[in-house]
Amino acid sequence: MALSNNNSKRATLGLGAIAVAGLVSTPLLAQDAHQLIRDNCVGCHTESGTTAAPSFSRISEQRKSPEGWLMTINRMTHLRGLELTSEDKRALVKVLADRQGLAPEETEGYRYLLEQNTNIIESGINQGLTETCGRCHSEARFALQRRSEDEWKYLVNFHMGQFPSTEFHSMSRDRPWYQIAFNETAVELGQRFPLHSKEWSNWQAAARNDLMGRWRVTGFVPGKGEFAGWMSAAKTAEGRYDVTLTGRYADGAALAGEGKATLYTGYEWRAGLTIDGVKMRQVMAANEQGTALDGRMFLAAEREIGGDMRAVRDQGKTELVAIQPAYLRAGESTELTLIGQNLAGDIDLGDGVVVEKVLSRNADRITLQARAEGAEGVRMARVGTSKQLSALTVYNTLARVEVLPTDAVTRIGGAGGNMPKVRAAYRAVGYSVGADGKPGTEDDLRLGYMPASWSIKPADEVAAHEKDDRYAGSIDASGIFTPGDAGLNPERKRSANNVGRLKVVASVADGDARVEGEGNMLVSVQDFVRRVLD
Amino acid sequence: MKHLKSMNKKAQLINKAVSSEEVEDVVAMQVVVGCTATTDPGWELDPFGGLGSLCQPMESDLYGCADACWWPAQVPDTMHTYQEWGEGVAKADKDWRKLDGIFEDAE
Prior knowledge:
The complex is a heterodimer.
Chain A: H1 14-21, H2 30-41, E1 47-49, E2 54-56, E3 62-64, H3 66-80, H4 86-99, H5 104-107, H6 111-114, H7 127-132, H8 139-143, E4 145-147, H9 149-162, H10 177-192, H11 198-205, E5 213-221, E6 225-237, E7 240-249, E8 254-264, E9 268-275, E10 278-286, E11 292-299, E12 302-313, E13 319-324, E14 327-329, E15 333-341, E16 347-348, E17 353-362, E18 365-372, E19 377-383, E20 390-395, E21 400-404, E22 407-411, E23 424-425, E24 427-432, E25 445-450, E26 453-458, H12 461-465, H13 468-471, E27 473-475, E28 480-483, E29 500-510, E30 513-524, E31 529-530
Parallel strand pairs in A: 14-20, 22-30
Antiparallel strand pairs in A: 1-2, 3-4, 5-6, 5-12, 6-7, 7-8, 8-9, 9-10, 10-11, 11-12, 13-15, 15-18, 16-19, 17-18, 19-20, 21-24, 23-28, 24-25, 26-29, 27-28, 29-30
Chain B: H1 9-16, H2 20-28, H3 62-66, H4 92-95, E1 102-103
């Protein structure tokens, strides 16, 4: 049970579909962009300013991610009766995200939501915002928006009108909720996430990079493993690309796919590809130089199932992109694969790490057997003249295992109902003790993702009593957890659903010993409202 | 309260809670993205971070909360936004398979 598209009826199209369109053949000039807004939005919104520099009520007072603008247009369609062609919808998202998007710095710390990597507990901006907004939404949902103070106030009023019982919920009815939200929260949001910012001004003035070219890619697909390959982007229009991806997984299995990509706001890469028959989506951000893309690739139909992805542009120079695995145990011969491009020259794996034997070598991949001696620590590896060094960690003993995600929610589904199961994909990260000799402290040395055997157990005595481990789901050998069936379960007390609280246990081998780590799993009821961003 | 003995699990949990405000604060900071921190009642978690005080199975009183727009980011609110959600599924405990989701991504 690795990749599946069992709910293809509802395959999430979203920005992937928008990317697939590729309908805009030339960059929209400012007047064309304005006209597109006039044609679709001024039935309700009013225009002011000059013809050359118009301002559209509400619209011009906000900036958002491409997904944020898509949600806005979706809401206008559903609640306000907006009718527009799919071509205009795609073009509007592009125009609005390009002209009223977020600067790269403004998305920092919140990219997990754009990447749909949502099995986390947010750290919390502050108690007031958590209680007022984070009670229903992720904090990233509002932190990835910029509005004038008035616009934040309008948003409070929208919630008051659309969801009037908001005032009666916990953390609302014990206080004058509306007054606080309107007079305090909206003001704070306007200060923290303002319409005008230096970051956005600078980004608007910055030169735009074209991402056409060849990219060396590495990543991880749950159930398949780590992969390395090449991605080619051929420009079809301004900000639109045809994309091909070829490569292989760590076990040698081939990987191949193709699709379309759109570049929003000059750096937000959104692609929809079909890889070996499975629809996948990429959400990545280009760096300032346009030489690297970082983000996540996930199943289009199941955004929870995905993994990190990185792409490094081929600039004709020697470049070491990754080492798989990026750790080796001192004193043991270990097989390592060096992933890169134009890999010419001597291999240097850092102090005390000896290349015992090169097993295979070509311009973009070197497989070798290495042995490390000396103290624990991070070595910097290089091949030939590569400027970018790649970290290789030498360790003596695996001290602890971290299970990622540490906290996750999955949801019951299937069983003939309309809601698919929401699964979760796990990985185990190994650590050695670090300089202080104690595990679980800040100086623990992160070794990297390690192969693990997976199991579940009840989270506590209550969960054991309810037999949550029997009913709530199971985990497979690759670390993918599948929750139980939806519906009432007559075997459970009061015919309870197959919900439960579990510990997900990873067991990692370290020589003859095994080291275990645990993560928290909540198997919950359905999320019937599947927004583009939670 | 000291003369009353808690008879079931939910009552025992309530007795253990120091105060409702403290409980709410804890849960509000502990939910995974996508879950609601509204816990009176909760959808994914109860005020104690567990499942013991949830309405279970959820189908038994689904509309009691959906109609009141209690978790509009998780369950379609039939007050304003999705008034037709649940139509034809009068008895959710029997016909839960007919309940549809709001899949915003799908155009």
